[in-house]
Every structure is written in C-alpha cells, then in structure tokens.
Design a protein that fits this description.
Blueprint (H helix, E strand, L loop, with lengths): L9 E6 L5 H13 L8 H22 L7 E9 L2 E8 L23 H8 L2 E7 L3 E9 L38
C-alpha cells in the first residue's frame, strides 16, 4: 500500500488593507507552490493567485468601507481533485455570485474582478455564517488528463467554456446571449 502524506491547510490572517496585498499574494504563491499537484504548473498557479487576489481586493475595498479596516483570512487546501481557497472576513455581507456578467461588447471601467474569478475558478460559492462571517470559496478542479497522461492547463470553467486564449476556446460556439 502506498503511503501518502496528507497535505495540510495553509492559513493566513492580516489586516484588510491595500498595503497588505503584496503579503497576501506572497502567501498564495507559497501555499500554491507547496501543493503537490501545482508545484510544476506556474501558469495554473498564477491564474489561481489572480482570482484569489481579486477576491481579497473586493474585501479590502468594500467589506469594511464604513469603518476601520478589519481582518481578512485565507485558507488554501487540497480538495479531492483540486484545491479550495477560502476567503474570510467579518465585514458587510456581499455575495459576489449575485453580480451579473459584465457586458463585454460595451466594456466599462471596473467591475471585472468577479468575472475573472468565475472564469478562472471551477466554482465560486458564497456563504454568510453565524450572521457575521463572509465565506467565499474559490474552488479549482484538476484539469482533465489528456490521453498521454499529462495534465492540460486549459480547462472548462463552471459554465463549460474554455478561457479565452486557450487551445480550443476560439472554436467554441459563442454563448453570450444564453447567460
């Protein structure tokens, strides 16, 4: 029987202030680099870090806007066939999953952070716990294995589309009107 070392959750707490974004990004880079399935996948790690930093930026900008900055917590852990990042705060309730998709045909300024999170991650889920905790789950499933056994970085998002710029994305049917 193969002995498997159980990977643990990486935790990080800091002040929800924009001056801490570099620390948050550094934590995410370390945590993702330490996950066995992501060590040799720099592009995948970068995309996941981008989605998580966007989530943290939203907390910093909006969760504590009516008072002093509170705290923000991050948890990174392996999850079955991928990973889970949990972003925690005790600020104003905000469910990013209720934000509509931006009109990409008529781009405006800002409002693309939640869109990026949804495009990069396999699942984005929000819960309000105990009447005071905002819990944002960013879940990334392993890319499908190709016939040769190597993982591909291109993966379908939760809506079944490939991210733009990846192999196969240009050949997919446009589903702009169906969302």
């Amino acid at each position: 029987m193969e002995a498997r070392r159980q990977q643990k959750r990486a935790l990080f707490w800091t002040c929800a202030d924009s001056s801490r974004l570099a620390e948050i990004a550094a934590f995410l880079r370390r945590a993702l680099s330490n996950l066995a399935g992501y060590r040799d996948r720099a592009e995948e790690r970068y995309l996941i870090e981008l989605a998580a930093v966007e989530a943290c930026t939203n907390v910093i900008r909006y969760a504590y806007r009516n008072g002093p900055p509170g705290r923000i917590g991050l948890s990174v852990r392996p999850r079955g066939n991928g990973l889970e990042i949990l972003v925690l705060d005790r600020g104003a309730p905000f469910d990013p999953t209720e934000i509509p998709r931006p009109d990409l045909a008529n781009p405006g300024e800002g409002g693309y952070g939640v869109f990026l999170m949804r495009e990069i991650m396999s699942e984005v889920r929000y819960e309000r716990r105990g009447g005071r905790w905002n819990c944002l789950y960013l879940i990334r499933k392993e890319p499908a294995q190709e016939a040769g056994g190597s993982a591909t970085v291109a993966k379908a998002n939760s809506r079944g589309r490939l991210p733009r710029g990846t192999a196969g994305a240009d050949t997919e049917k446009s589903r702009e009107g169906s969302e």
